[in-house]
Here is the input.
Amino acid sequence: MAGEQHIFYLRDAQDNLCGVQLSAALWEHARPAVEKALARLLPPEEAAEPLEDFRQFLEYWDFKYPYDPAVKCPHCGAETSDWRTDPAHPFHLTTANLGGLLVFRCAHCRTTIRQKHFRDHRALEHTVYEG
Ligand SMILES: [Zn+2]
Here is the structure.
C-alpha cells in the first residue's frame, strides 16, 4: 500500500499507539486540518492573553499607587509575586481594560480573580469555578 510510506504509527513498549508521524509531503497537505484540530483540543485558557490590552492598561495608569503584579487565588491559595514572569504561570490573564479591570484565571482551580483598580485602592473579587 502506497500510504505506508507516508504514515508511521509510533507505539510504546506495551504496543499502545502513542503517536503518528507523517511524511513531509503528507504533512504539507494535512497541516491546515491538523492545526485546526489542535486549536479545538486546547482548553480555552490556552487562548492568547490580551497582552496588548495589558500594555495599554499600564501605559494609562494614573492611580495613586504603583502597579502590583502579585496575584493570589483566595480559593486554593496559589500565589505569585509577579504573574508576568513566574515560570509556572499560575494565573492566566483573560481581560485587561483601561477602566482598571484585570481578570485572571487560576491555572490550578480555575477560579476567576478580578482586580478592580480604583484611584486610591484595589479591590479583589473572585468566582469559584463550578465545572
Ligand atoms: Zn486557585
In short: The chain has two domains: 2-41, 45-127.
